[in-house]
Design brief:
alpha/beta; Rossmann fold; 2 domains; 6 strands; elongated; disordered N terminus
């Protein structure tokens, strides 16, 4: 099938847990003569199932979704459907998100607030073998502070969230309660905050989690 006689249609998958956003994107892309939305999904597992079934050329994936997040979907798509190019959409982009998305195999990364025609152009670019990173986010990435926490401290802090009992974090990480407390204390000290709740919020807001 061809949109305007110039070439084959670009088959796109949309994955976003917000129905209105997903419907809006589908409507915008539906106006493009060379892009066809062949499948939609509201969570990460659904995105992978739809990708296997429809084999799209480009998957547009929300960063934050239930079941599997956008990074996890990107990584799995790169493994099971390497011909599908992934584009990450986010309303909360941070420089570390950008780095992790590119590492996971994403070919495009842009905010949900981008101008209406930008997504279509990004889809065309990545389908043609190129990449796209939102310029403002790329600029931020050059000056973003490095995360001072170790991978293990981040793991513990991610599980601890705001009020998860230390015993539960210990069980889920297979670390002793004393080790969990030490890692949380180190995170609080390195981030120069008062407690683990503030440490979690600081790490989350900087995109380190």
């Amino acid at each position: 099938m061809s949109g305007d006689g110039a070439g084959p249609m670009i088959r796109a998958l949309l994955a976003d847990d917000e129905d209105l956003i997903r419907a809006g994107l589908a409507a915008l892309l539906g106006l493009e003569p060379d892009i066809e939305v062949v499948a939609e999904a509201f969570d990460g597992r659904g995105a992978l199932t739809a990708a296997r079934a429809h084999r799209p050329d480009v998957a547009v994936i929300d960063l934050q979704m239930p079941a599997l997040n956008g990074m996890e979907v990107c990584a799995e798509l790169a493994r099971v459907l390497p011909g599908c190019k992934a584009v990450i959409l986010t309303g909360h982009g941070r420089p570390p998100h950008l780095h992790r998305a590119l590492t996971a195999g994403a070919k495009g990364f842009l905010p949900k607030g981008a101008p209406g025609g930008t997504l279509a152009e990004v889809i065309r670019r990545v389908h043609g073998g190129g990449r796209y990173v939102d310029p403002a986010l790329a600029a931020d990435a050059l000056t973003a502070p490095e995360c001072p926490l170790t991978p293990r401290e981040l793991d513990v802090l991610r599980l601890a969230e705001l009020a998860t009992p230390v015993s539960e974090v210990s069980r889920r990480t297979n670390l002793s309660i004393g080790s969990v407390r030490n890692h949380l204390s180190a995170a609080v000290s390195k981030l120069k905050v008062a407690n683990r709740a503030e440490a979690f919020r600081t790490a989350r807001d900087n995109g380190w989690l």
